[in-house]
Amino acid sequence: MLVDDQAIVRAGVARILAPEDGFEVVAECADGDEAVAAVSETSPDVVLMDVRMPRVNGLEATRRLGELADPPPVLVLTTFDEDEVLWGAIEAGVRGFVLKDARADDLIAAARAVAGGGAWFDPAVTPRVLSAYRRSVAPGQRERERLEQVTEREYAVLRLMARGATNSEIAGSLYVSEATVKSHVGSIFAKLGVRDRAAAIVFAFDHGVVTAGGD
Q1: DSSP 8-state class, residue 143
Q2: How far is residue 130 CA from its own chain's centroid?
Q3: What is the CA radius of gyration of the chain?
Q4: Partners of 49 in beta bridges
Q5: Is 16 helix (H, G, I), strand (E, B) or coil?
Q6: Cβ proximity of 95 and 119 under 8 Å
Q7: Across the strands, what pairs with 31?
Q8: What is the pTM of this model?
Q9: Tens of pLDDT along 17-45?
Q10: Which element (helix H / strand E) includes 97?
């Protein structure tokens, strides 16, 4: 589902996320206030959400979607003019960020990752996300000692998660079941003191588990 107040942007994204690449646009919304009803009617696998819209912005719309019984993952597609928007998006529960000037291949990869249960951070956005994270998160949550509680296998899961891998892809890479991966992910959240996948990935970047543009 595409949520953006600019029809030309929606048309461009719909052309990129085409059937030949395995996508179907099931709904388009021009404002965040339309998103909840549209999701209930169409049950999309992923919502591409603009941030700045005239009535209900993308962050508030994401929060409202998060209150649904089975909320879809949200991928923010925006220009991110303000750093505060980045952390606000994480707090709202988005699964990823992609810039509107991203390459078509990156947009496709981001949509697939988020729809598949993973997360995606545009490399151009990552430093700003980390900056907002450092300013906004309590010092105790940033303590590196939290990583000492993470086992070697959980650390491997966290690295793959931070690179956008879905639970299924992590399971295949580590030769374990998807149920085992889900168990590891839950344990990682508890040990790092984070509530979701996006926050865990930010933590991983902030503490050197992975680096922007690195392995």
Answers
A1: -
A2: 14
A3: 17
A4: 3, 76
A5: helix
A6: yes
A7: none
A8: 0.68
A9: 999 999 999 999 999 889 988 998 999 99
A10: strand 96-99
